[in-house]
Amino acid sequence: MQKNLTMIRSILFFLFFAFNVQAIEFKGSFSQGGLITGKVDQNLKVTVDGKEIKVNNDGYFIFGISRNRVDPIKINIRGKIYSKDFVKKISKRKFKIQRIDGLPKRKVSPNDEDMKRIRKEGKLISIAKKENSDLSFFFQNFVRPVDGITTGVYGSQRILNGKPRRPHYGIDIAAPKGTKVKNSNSGKVLLSNNDLFFTGGTIIIDHGHGLISIYSHLEDLYVKEGDFVKRGEIIATVGSTGRSTGPHLDFRLYCRNIPVDPDLIIPKN
User: Fold this and answer.
1) C-alpha angle 198/201/202, rounded to 5°?
2) Buried-exposed string 112-130: b where 16+ CB fall within 10 A, e elsewhere
3) Alpha carbon distance 242, 220 (integer Å)
4) For the segment 90-131, what is each residue's pLDDT rounded down to a tens digit?
5) Of 2, 29, 134, 182, which one is least surrounded by beta carbons within 10 A?
6) Using CB atoms within 10 A of its CB, is residue 141 exposed (0-12), middle (13-18) or buried (19+)?
7) Mean pLDDT of 151-155
8) What span, in angstroms and rounded, lies between the C-alpha atoms of 47 and 202?
9) Nearest to 139 by CA among 63, 215, 205
10) Phi and psi dihedrals of 161, rounded to 5?
């Protein structure tokens, strides 16, 4: 009798967890530049392409899909008595080519002194991109930081002053100089600097689990490193600092150093 009860409990235990795994619904776009959030029982482990990723106390997890990804993503969710695999195909996108002329020569072809500065500033940004805190705002909705026309889109190949450069990994939103910039989601300020070589006035905010937002070409900055800022809070004003031809906000999202497309993440009005 006792043996039968133990067996029944084991079966019920297995079915309970199996149901939770099967009931998983991934949120986001499985496409190049997509950002995916999911939810599991907090005691389960999640691996993406063989690498374990963090699951918060409510069972939420997150990962990004790179611009050039073509292979399916392999997701494994496992517990003590089972293992469930998901294989998700990636939708390919056709990215635009954008030509921008009229930039200062040094902003396109920096000299030796500029390169020293760029490398030093690049280290600061790299440190921020590696942040993987336990903050849990990453799965909440983001808001558009500025109202305005989108003049530059994610993934577009940039031709600067006639010279091919790296793709653009954010969205450019045109707005008059001095327009207030809202924080897109709650988090902690990792970097606040009013004069970086390429991005000028720059703020980086940590939303948890490797997801950060970057605001560039800012004029006035209202927050400092270490500040906690709420979603919708005014953090800066639009400018044209750094490598820029006119007032706009360059807004980017990175998930564990993978740039993802804000237009796939921010709800459409």
Assistant:
1) 85
2) eeeeeeeeebeeebeebbe
3) 13
4) 999 998 877 777 677 777 788 889 899 999 999 999 999 999
5) 2
6) exposed
7) 91
8) 33
9) 63
10) 50, 35
